[in-house]
Amino acid sequence: MKLAQTPFLLPPFVGAVLGRLPPYPGSLLLATALNFVLAPRLAPDVLQILRGRRFRIHVRDAQSKFDFLWDGRRFVPGRWSAEQIDMTLGASALDFVLLAQRQQDPDTLFFERRLTMEGDTELGLVVKNTLDALELPMLDLQRWLPEAVRARLRALAQRMGAPAAMRAAGDAP
Fold it and tell me: Quick one: which of 18, 20, 28, 170 could link to 153 by a disulfide (CB 3.0–4.6 Å)?
């Protein structure tokens, strides 16, 4: 019989401190990250469904909530009451990181009650299916280890026909 692992949660004092921070700067950072990482990869039909819909990310153990919407051109931060939110995704900080890195799938977290979706069920399914279909290698931390970055730089230099001395320079620490 396989025992369920207790997921890592931020210590309560960390959540208490983070929960006192104003939500808007975090929403601005999240919207900026979504515009950089996610928006260019979303299909036009998905963007049409998302248009004007208000989302909230609730990082439960950090006691933090981040609000945003798709305005038709980009994700923009907001601040709305719970009644104004179309869909809320809730999880621990670690579970959101694992989802972003594709080390955990949303269905597993949902059935383990570690991921919650509240609000418009149809919208939630669109979001879940869209995220499942995306390949986001940028969020794979292994890609950003120094050896991996140097290897990509060497390959790029080789494709561009850089002199051997420049390709070798990519090997320097």
Answer: 170
Q: Which residues contact 89 (CB under 8 A, 6 or more apart)?
A: 55, 56, 57, 58, 115, 116, 117, 124, 127
Q: How far is CA 73 from CA 15, 31, 35, 70, 87, in A?
A: 33, 12, 9, 7, 20
pTM above 0.85, yes or no: no
* Length of the chain measured in residues: 173
β-strand partners of 64: 59
DSSP 8-state code for residue 90? E
C-alpha Rg value of the chain to the nearest Å: 19
DSSP one-letter string for 15-73: HHHHTTS-HHHHHHHHHHHHHHHTGGGS-HHHHHHHBT-EEEEEEGGGTEEEEEEE-SS
Q: What are the structural domains, with CATH classification, of the chain? A: 12-135 (3.30.1050.10), 140-173 (no CATH)
Whole-number pLDDT of residue 6: 61
